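JOB MANIFEST
job_type = single_chain_structure
chain_count = 1
residues = 301
[input]
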Amino acid sequence: MSSSSVVKITDVTKSFNGLKAVDELSFSIEKGIIYGLLGPNGAGKTTTIRMMMRMLYPDRGSIEILGQSLRDLKKDRIGYLPEERGLYRKMKVLDLLAFFGEVKSMKRRAARRSGSEWLERLGLAEVGQKKVEELSKGMQQKVQFISTILHEPDLVILDEPFSGLDPVNVNILMDIILEFHRKGHTVIFSTHMMDQVEKLCREICLINKGRKVLDGTLSDIKKEYGRNSISIRYAGDGSFLKDLPGVDSVNVYGNELFLRLREGADSKAILKEVSARLDVQKFEIAEPSIHDIFVDQVSSS
């Protein structure tokens, strides 16, 4: 692992009632990148993040954050948006943001000023004097996002940050995440939304059943996964495709599907067979998406 890593997780194991939630997990995250921590429900992502935040401690292995052990970690250098949201519902929004800023070592006046600026930027300028409980769920989520980044943390950890947001607000938060990236902050991004991973992340780690399935840069993972893949859009009954010679796996999305071919398979022969039996609207050699890799790897592990 590189000495410039912002996060180093080495052979970490965590069990609950004899069941391993995280099993000998190792990965590292370099400074200044957006890193995707991916996996299905129950894979161990949130447990891993909670250990990074010192909410839990590993049974075995080691974790270093920003060059410090968990014991010495100064959490005011981290911004954490948990999957399970929680705000003080009776507090006024601007008072709440000032409080969170002070917890992260900001001066109260600076925290209120920064909070006001962020509220205005996210279209919430009018809610500063309202109680949290008066806001819609979407507004509350944006307030919690502001509380996560208000103190300009070196490391931002976002667990399902887009959950429940409409596409417009998703794009607003994505722009802010990319802005933090351009300013040199490191972002860990845990999500089920693979299209957002494609847009935001340079590197990923996919875990399943507590163990690492794969990690690395998106480009290297896709290259290793191969270009022996075909995307087909069609009309008709495509159920026969999974039985064609040379087809290793099929992911179906309505009348569009993604075929992964075995090594040495002839795509021209598949095109001939498909054209004879279906109304083919698109047939192309395709780079696998992270969604397809996710489904394939989780299904086979």
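[summary]
The longest helix spans residues 167-182.
The chain has a mean pLDDT of 89.
exit_status = 0
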